[in-house]
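User: Could you write out the 3D structure of this protein bound to NAI? I've included everything you need below.
Assistant: Certainly. Input first, then the structure.
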Amino acid sequence: MASRTLSIGIVGLGTVGTGVIRLIEENAMLIARRSGQTISIGAITARDRNKDRGVDLRGYRWVDDMLEMADDPELDIIVELIGGSDGPALTLAKKALTNGKSLVTANKAMIAHHGLELAELAETNGAALHYEAAVAGGIPAIKGVREGTAANRIERIYGILNGTSNYILSTMETSGRDFDDVLAEAQALGYAEADPSFDIDGVDAAHKLSILASLAFASRLDFDAVATEGIRAIQAADIAQADALGYRIRLLGLAERHDGDKASELFQRVHPYLVPKSHPLANVDGSTNAVVAEGNFSGRLLFQGAGAGDGPTASAVVADIIAIARGELSPAFAMPVKALEPCAPAESGHRIGRAYLRFQVADKPGVLAEITAALRDADVSIESLIQKERSPNDAVLVAMVTHECAESQVNATLDALAGSSSLLGEPMVIHILGDE
Ligand SMILES: NC(=O)C1=CN([C@@H]2O[C@H](COP(=O)(O)OP(=O)(O)OC[C@H]3O[C@@H](n4cnc5c(N)ncnc54)[C@H](O)[C@@H]3O)[C@@H](O)[C@H]2O)C=CC1
Ligand SMILES: N[C@@H](CC=O)C(=O)O
Ligand code: NA
C-alpha cells in the first residue's frame, strides 16, 4: 500500500459525487498503486446532509460551508460536483485555486464561461485544473485531444456531445415513444442537467464544443460564438422521414478553424444533423457520446463511450485526481492561457452542403408552388420531395432534401417564405452530414 496520502474534499453528492465515492471505495487499492498515493476522502458536503443517497457517508467528515474546504490545510484537492456556471461553484473554484489547491471539476458550464480565468489562476498559483468529466463524460476526450493529438494541426472536431439528447433521439427512433416521456426517463437515469433545457436546447453540447475547440485549435475559448440549436423542434415525422431517406438524426457539435491570409476564424455550431446510416456517428445510441478529431498527421480519430451517468463520469473525475497525484500539472488548455490565440467567429453562410427542410403547410392549392418558387429564386434545387398526408390539425407535412448549396441560399429561401400564411409553424432545417 502507498505510504503517502492525498486528501480530497468532495463538494456535491448527487449522481456524480456519489459515483466518485463508490468508485474510490471500490477501487481504492488499484488507485493507490496507480497513483503512488492513497486517495483519501478528507471532507464532503452537499445541500442536504440527511438525504439518503444510497451510499454510507457516516465515515466521512461533513463540512457545512463548502468554502471552508478551500481554506482547509488538510485538503490537497477540491472536487467540485455541484454544477452551475457562476454562483457557489465559481466562488469555490476561484478560492481553491487562489489558495494553490488543485481543482477537479465536471462542470462544463463553468469551464465554458470561466475556464480561461480559472486556468490563469491555476497557472499563477501552481495548482492544477482538471475537467475531464466536463466533456463527453467517461470518454478521455480532453486527454485525447490535449495530449494525444498535440503534434497535429486539427482540421475539424465534431461529434455527439450530449447524452440526454442522443438518448431521446435514438429512443424515439427505435421505440416511437414520445419526446417528453423519453426525456423524463433520461432525467431518472441521471443523464440530464439540473435544467434539462440545457440538454435539449443544445447549450450543454455548446459548452463542451467550445472547450474542445479551444483545445483543438489552440484558440481562446469562446462559448458565446457557438451557434446553437437543439432538438426541441424535431418531430417523430422527421425521424421517420430521415429513416426512409437513409439517415438518422443526431445532435452534433462541430468546430472548424479557417486560416485566412491575415487572420484565423473559428466556426462553432451545435445543430441537429441527418447522419448517413453508414457513418459511425449514426450508430451511436442512447447516452453514448462520440468525438471525431481530424489531425493533419493522425488522420481521423474517433473517441466513443458513455457520455453521462454516475459510473462513467466518476471514472473521468477520479482519473483527474490520479493525474494530480502523479504530479501532472500540465496547463488546463494545453498551453499557458496567454499563448492561446483569439479567433473571430466564422459565418455559416458560405458553407456548402445538403439540407433537409420540413414545412408544415395549410392544405390548399398553390402552397407547394409557393415553396418551390422560393427555392428557385434562391437557386436551391431539390433532390427529393415528400408530401405527407394531412395531420389531425389540418396541417400537411412537406419534407425535402436539397442538392448541395450554400447555407446562405437555404436561409434566403426561408427568409422569402417568412410570414407566409401558407406555413403553419416554423420550418425545420436539418443539415446533412457530408464528408466531415
Ligand atoms: N450527471 C451526469 O451524467 C454528468 C454531470 N456532469 C456535471 O457534474 C456536475 C454534477 O452533476 P450531477 O451529479 O448530475 O448533479 P446532481 O444534481 O445530481 O448533484 C448536485 C449535487 O450538488 C449539490 N449542490 C448543488 N448546489 C449546491 C450548493 N449551493 N451547496 C452545496 N451543495 C450543492 C446538491 O445537493 C447535489 O448533491 C454538474 O456540473 C454536471 O454538469 C458532467 C458529466 C456528466
Ligand atoms: N447532461 C449531460 C451530462 C453529461 O455531460 C448529458 O446529457 O450529456
Ligand atoms: Na471526458
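The chain has three domains: 5-134, 142-306+341-345, 352-432.
User: Perfect, thank you.
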